[in-house]
Design brief:
- With about 270 residues, this protein is mostly helical.
- It folds into 2 domains: about 80 residues; about 160 residues, hpI Integrase, Chain A, CATH 1.10.443.10.
- The chain is globular, with a radius of gyration of 22 Å.
- The termini are far apart.
Length: about 270
């Protein structure tokens, strides 16, 4: 059986085992990268060399390359469950370039002022992303039933790392309370929930003068602001929904800078 012939069975297998966002990413990886290169090859003829070639063609995008190879190898493993012979092995992962772009306080102020000029639902989503540290997919798919006004939290049922509770501020809840409830989703779209607002974000980012700044960097900025204001790394990791302390460790340098700043402030105070 060719890889492209098995792909629908693979997606059907994953449909009840991964989140909707993950399933959509699997589809993109298959459509844009895996099937164009390996789709016509019978599963049993796909070699480790083929996987290395697939990885190499995406080497300029290390994170995407690793993701595509992971999806391809998961398809192979599921094919084995269906009785197909597979010989390919996953290639060593490429080193990914981690972004460390955070908003400064001045940049955050400029962003908020830009959003104030033209209030909109998309602008509200951007505010909530910055004020909660949630992922874009978590907020776009947020259900009214997951917003607990009394306990001041979101009870997310299908986050990227599974179900989790996200504490939220009274300001966020106040903004949500003013929204109409026209759907089960907080941010309703034509079909289901709102899927994207990339054009709005790019326009807002340019107007706010934010250079080399991605929407996901709002999540990193939330962590940075929390840590520099004395919130322990472990607590930040809990709020962000990290399963492993090692994931939160990427913010350790921010914690160290905050600690150094605190030491300098105490020193200046005692000298005075």
């Amino acid at each position: 059986m060719r890889l492209s012939d098995f792909a629908p069975d693979f997606l059907l297998f994953c449909q009840t085992r991964v989140t909707r966002a993950t399933l959509a990413d699997y589809r993109r990886c298959l459509r844009d990268y895996i099937e164009p290169q390996l789709g016509e090859k019978p599963l049993h003829t796909i070699t480790s060399g083929d996987m290395l070639t697939l990885q190499g063609r995406l080497a300029h995008m290390p994170a995407r390359s690793n993701r595509v190879c992971m999806v391809a190898m998961r398809l192979m493993r599921i094919a084995q469950l269906y009785g197909h012979k597979v010989q390919a092995e996953r290639p060593p992962m490429l080193r990914e370039r981690r972004r460390s772009r955070y908003l400064t306080r001045e940049e955050a102020t400029r962003l908020m002022h830009t959003l104030d000029k033209k209030p909109s639902v998309c602008g509200l989503i951007i505010r909530i992303l910055l004020l909660t540290g949630c992922r874009r997919s978590e907020i776009l798919a947020l259900l009214w039933s997951e917003v607990d006004f009394s306990r001041k939290c979101f009870e997310l049922s299908k986050g990227k790392t599974g179900a989790r509770t996200v504490p939220v501020s009274g300001e966020v809840l106040h903004m949500l309370a003013a929204l109409p409830r026209a759907s089960e989703y907080v941010f309703a779209g034509r079909r289901g929930h709102l899927k994207t607002f990339q054009r709005y974000w790019e326009r807002t980012r340019r107007e706010a003068g934010l250079q080399d700044f991605h929407l996901h960097d709002l999540r990193h900025s939330f962590a940075s602001f929390a840590i520099t204001n004395g919130v322990p790394l472990a607590v930040v990791g809990h709020v962000l929904g990290h399963k492993s302390p090692g994931t939160t460790a990427r913010y350790a340098h921010v914690h160290d800078e905050a600690a150094q700043s605190a030491v300098e402030r105490v020193s200046s105070l005692l000298r005075a």
